[in-house]
Amino acid sequence: MAGEGEKKPVLEMVQADGADEGCVTFVLHNEDHTLGNSLRYMIMKTADVDFCGYTITHPSESKINFRIQTRGSIPATEPLRSGLNELSDVCQHVLNTFQARVNEFKERQEEPME
Q1: If pLDDT is split at 50, 70 and 90, which confidence band does 79 have?
Q2: Which pTM does this prediction carry?
Q3: Boundaries of each DNA-directed RNA polymerase RBP11-like dimerisation domain copy (predicted)?
Q4: Which of 83, 87, 88, 94 is deepest in the core (most CB within 10 A)?
Q5: How far is CA 57 from the centre of its chain?
């Protein structure tokens, strides 16, 4: 366990002894359904993923057990990495679009009324 001065890792990788790299459970600390469901959706769009799902261990705990199983010899870390990158890109696009519309609205408010 982490001591008082040490920080817990945000992401842990849990793998059964003898299991291949294509079948891994990731533990995401300080996260909830917001990231879990969005990330699961992004990862399931990948053709090489057989299974992707998550559970929240208990409502009072803020951690997710996130399971990924892939086809062939593709390690489960690859779809996780690409899913996180794609989700980040989508969030950035939403933020940019929102900010552009807010700026357009503010500009219209500053124009004199006829």
Answers
A1: very high
A2: 0.82
A3: 23-96
A4: 83
A5: 17
